[in-house]
Amino acid sequence: DSVDKLRSCLEALRNWVPDVTVVIQENEDSAKEIIEEFKMSVCIHSTSTTSARWEYGLTQINASWVLLVRSNEIITGQLRKSIAEKIKVNVDNPCQYLLKSTIVFLKKRLKYSLDWYDCKPSCLTYLPKNVVTIQNLKKIKWAFEGELIRYNEDTISDCANTVIKKADERAGYLAKVLTNSNPYLLFIAGLSSSIKIFSQAYFSKKGFKEGFEGIVFSICDAHAELLGYLRYYELYIREKKKLRDDLSVLNKILVIKLRDIGDNILCTPLISNLKYHLPETSISILTWSYSKAVFENNPHIDQLFDLAKDNPFKNIKKVLSQLNSSNFDLVICTHSGKIASNLLLKIKTKYRINNYYRGRNKSYNLITPESDYYRSSIERDLDCLRSLGLESFDKKTQLFLSDSEVLSAKNNLITKGINPNKKKVLVHPTAAVPIREWPLTRFNKLIQKLNNNDN
User: Which residues form a coiled coil (predicted)?
Assistant: First the structure.
């Protein structure tokens, strides 16, 4: 339906407006085809708000008089004539002449102007060459003859889609003006604001006189406001959208991995992926002393901290002091165990990730998703990467051995009668829990097959 409305809008403009520029988002392929069909200019801009698109469009054209309209609006013949006469008059200062709109909602022409409360009116704008923004322009209510007809949502299903879109837009606005992160206070503020918006639409704008359409619109406009507050909390508080949009603020990251040797090895893809996406960021590791060697010589790691597993509380205050003096911007706890979670809570940092385990997801302010199926330790660690809006480029584990370690291993193999130049396979047929075990019968067949290979 939006495509049909765009076609009607361009059809009404092309015979009397000499230069039409349409601002759309990158993924609007159907709109691109229609614009090309009408041989009009197209600009790609990431924002979804109308006012931001208008602002961007003004930077792409060279004209003093600009008509700013939406793709779902039709300018009638009488209004065209009135606008054409207006632009012949000399104007001294930049300004906007607001165009009063007639609203069509749920396929019915409304008597009263029920439009989304944050919806900016279309306008005829005068901008001298030294002015390139419509912000803070003087707004004039001019008595143009004719009608600007805005075809809003046709069905309640369309309304639901618009409510979600409006909620995202309002969340973006709230992110600029709010600092509160308490979900209960935000809900109360959103509820209060939505009641106010409903009252304005239904009573002040006389929505009650429009019958069914007035009820639906007033509820939808209020609902978009409440959802906007909730969406703000979801995007900007739980998922830290501002951080995800600008990860360059992460100068120092600490990864807490208080696990055994095997889990530490499986954590190396997370470390290499962090360094791949954030090459200028310093990455440190906190792990058990006895498994610290797994991370040594790793070029992606800048600093190592350790605790003794047999007595972790012996030096915990000293280690905590070292961590706090390091001023980490982000701390990632890949396993939310008791000691690790308590440390995470005490480390001074702006952002915390505590990987999700049922009943143990504590001390975080940047959420990781809970998976609904069994996944490997590598994938669960990489969920921390995905919480930052990043995807993995490589999932291979890595160990970085020194020359002396490699030589020692070769000598050890030789003393045991093993040719170090041959390919070697280490078989470990058990696991901590049965679900991770491969059947012994299959191990047996694999070993027999490997023994038959001379290489």
Answer: none
